Amino acid sequence: MKRSFISVCIVMLFLFGCQTLPPAGQNEEQAFNFVVMGDSRPANVFRPEQPYIYHKVVEKAVSLNPVLILNTGDLVLGYDALSQEKASEEFNDFEKATASIREKNIPLYITMGNHAGYTDFARKDFARRYKHKETGALYYSVDVKNCHFIILCSELENESSQITGKQLEWLKDDLKKAGGKHIFVLLHRPLYPKIKHLKDSLNQYPEKRDALACLLKQYNVEMVFVGHVHVYNFSVVAGLGQIIAGGSGAPLAGTLEDGAFNHFFNVIVNGESIDYRLLPLQNEVALATQLMKEKRFQGALSLAQKAAEILPDHPMPNIIATAGCNLTGRTAEYNEGMTRLLSILGSRQEVFFRLGEYCLEVNQLDLSEFYLSSALAIDKNSFKAWYHTAQLKMKQKHYLSALEMYKKALPLTDNDHFKQEIREEINKIEPLIQDKELK
To answer: pLDDT-derived band of residue 239, with 50, 70 and 90 as boundaries?
Structure first.
């Protein structure tokens, strides 16, 4: 069987975008293509929508008319899903971002990621939506022409980071039935992680990982597609190929040289020939944010406005553009931006908060203070506004004020993660204040 990779210049495509390559052998009966993408979750609980770049990934993928799309998992943040309502909101936003896939009737097969397993609410909602409709299992297989696709689950309760028990026995039986087809395997956690997650992937249980790898090699699996690490990486270990395709929108890991760029895969099957095509995408929001940090406001504004044209209803391009107009003195455009954000986010308090949170990220501290203060003026009980104001005061080295803000934020959240973090911050600040008083 012929296995080949189409060479691409990653840096050039990352900087300037990519053009779709025409599928090889399009006129042959067996020729078809499928897409692999994954790890699109939001960066944090304060930006709950699917990332801007994921919408671009979906748009580009749908334009290829694939017979199916494989998703390597981590659709939602998960650990903030402390109620069934919140879990449904997170998955509903993912469904909204993937609406064009369903409109084209393209089958979408998703493996469960670890973020969907952080709470029982998230786990149940994922299973309700994406388990196999006939068997009710989170692992299953599908056939398309001369290919066999196996979707495994590395997140089963009490079996995370491993393929074992009933799932392993099912896999053995399923591989036997594949009948000489091209076999592709999808799961979330890598067998061989790179850059990050070096201790919580399948190598956490090396004997079980090696047994799984031997089984997959025994049946000549063409490729294993995984996510979990937010990079692109291709490796072959003892004859088993693995592609990490975790660049659909979650915060990237490592450097560009490590594979930290937004991307997805288009795989073209033409009889016995298989071409794996890596398609990087330009992320205008990420590039604009970097320029904002470098105080290159005009360039950031241009990129943000371009992103807003591509995706008019996404908050992030409009937040960056509005902040950029403020910083460059474009009063009329700034006012238009504020009106636009109000229509997207629904309340003035949320508009002020999101602008303050973003300006804090890009170190525009005076502007961040203005927006966060405006948010607090509307809602004195806003946990997220007090929390970010405390972070702002830390950056300004106003430690006493930061301590006061954290103490105001602490009783306003039920999230154990934030409670622990705030207590740790308070414990760090108190000695700083004492040292300053002694001096």
So the answer is: very high
